[in-house]
Structures are given as structure tokens and as C-alpha cells.
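Researcher: If convenient, please comment on what follows.
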Amino acid sequence: MDDVAAVSPTPRGLLARFLNGAGVELGPGHHPMPIPFPGVSVRYVDRWQPEENLALFTNLEDGASFPRPDIVANLDVDRLSALADESQDFVIASHLLEHLANPLAQLEDIQRVLKPGAVVVVFLPDRRFTFDRKRSATPIAHLVAEHRDRVTVVSDEHIEDYLRKTDVWDPSWTLEQQREQFELNRQRSIHVHCWSEDEFLPVLEHTIVEMGMRWELLDAVFNDDVPDRFEFGFVLRRSTVPANPRVMADRLRLSWQVLASKSREDAEAARQIARIRALPGFPVMERAWRVQRRLRRRVTWVPGGR
């Protein structure tokens, strides 16, 4: 039982069961993905050393710490060039893609470094339940244009949209102060892009149908599964089975919809149970039910008995 208790029942702990062998976590920040299962070796890829991260993120609580990167890389520029093709058993991209200037290019490189049959675990914030709630979802056409233009630097327009719609923008800033804020937030890796859980599904379909990636959806958790409903996550496997891209995308969409439906049903059941437990007479009823269950277990059936 102790071993079972050590495995986190949180969504992150559940999706971690798909991690095995040796892989990398991209931009782990000060909350690396928990690895509760044995047989897993992870290296960290990050742009900054811990001391540089702490200097940039002065708003973090005391005691926050960053793991020292095994591979130093600016993912906007270098992506995963330090890793060979088909060299990784897994990749973790937790709260990463929304920070990048070119998310499609990063997904492309993730598939490149995964071995056939290997997995990527992705977590993303749901914009509706974070400081991005006033922002619009990033459309596919915008991502496609950034990929086509090989964008490697987050634009001032992206940063200004973020600052204005997260209530950080100060209209009294001079042009020089605006430039300083743009550069600071570019280094801090703001949320360049944002989506809800439903809005990100077309991005995955695009990578399959238009970019030739071969993803299979193994599992997913949605904001109804997560405390405060702030994120969603999923596990994709680099498929080893040849398939028509449209068929593969349709399979992924159907799997996503089935898992999302199950998540909503479970969340509604939990809400109903919570409402029942909140009724004034529930403690008395619950005690009565427990007594009835104990009495039933003690009854011995006798043939012909009354």
C-alpha cells in the first residue's frame, strides 16, 4: 500500500504512468513534472540557469527553486537541435507551448526526437480560468503564419496584447518604459498564445493532416478533473502504424471527445454527490444507511425461513 500511496492521484501523477525510460522535460520552471513511477530518467532543457530564473521571476514565493538544466537552449531559436532524431523515450512539455513564438515548430521537433512508439506529455493552461480569460484564443491561421515565416522571436504585438488584457499595462508608460516592459516580458516568457481545452484540439488535427505528424491520443485530463480548473493535459504517442492522416486525425478527435465526455459526466456526478451531502439531514441518513448495510451483512439466509 505504501508504494500505491506514493503515486500521486492528481492528473499529473496519473499521466506520469506513461513515462518510461529516458527522456527530457522542456522548460520545467520551478514545478518540474512529478515522476512517481520507477524506471524513469529525465533531463531538463531550459534557457536559463537557476540563478537567472530567480532574478527574472522575483514575484515567486520564498523558497522557490529551479532545477539546473542538463541542456541549455533557447527553445524559440534552438528548439531541440541538441537532441538526435528518434533518441528520446518521452518528452514532457508542461505549460510550455503557450510561451513559445512558434508552437507548431516545437511540436514538429518533439515528434522528430521521439522514438517510434514514444510519448509526449503536454499540459496547457485553460485560458478561461487563468489571467488569460480576457484574451482570445490563438487561431490556427496565426500559428500557421508563424510556422511559415519561421518566427523565432516573440513580437511586441503579442506582448502588448498580453499586458493590456491581463491588466498589467500602464497607460502612463513612456515609449522607453514600454520598450523596457516588452524586453523584460520577452525574457520572462509570457503567455504568447492561449487556448481552452476545446480550442486546442484543432491544433493537434492540423499537425496530423497538414504537417504529417503521426499522433495517437493515449489519455487526457480536462479542467473538470483539475482543482481550480486551470489546466488540461494529454498524452500523445508517436504512432508506429501507417495510416491515412485524415483517418488518424479523426481517431484522435473521437478519442478526445470520448474522454472529455467522461470527464464532464464524472464532474457532474461529483457535484450531485456534494449537493446531497450538503443537505441538512444527510448526516442522519448516512448513518442510517451504514447501519442497514451492517445489518444486511449479518443476516444469514435459511432455506424455507421467513
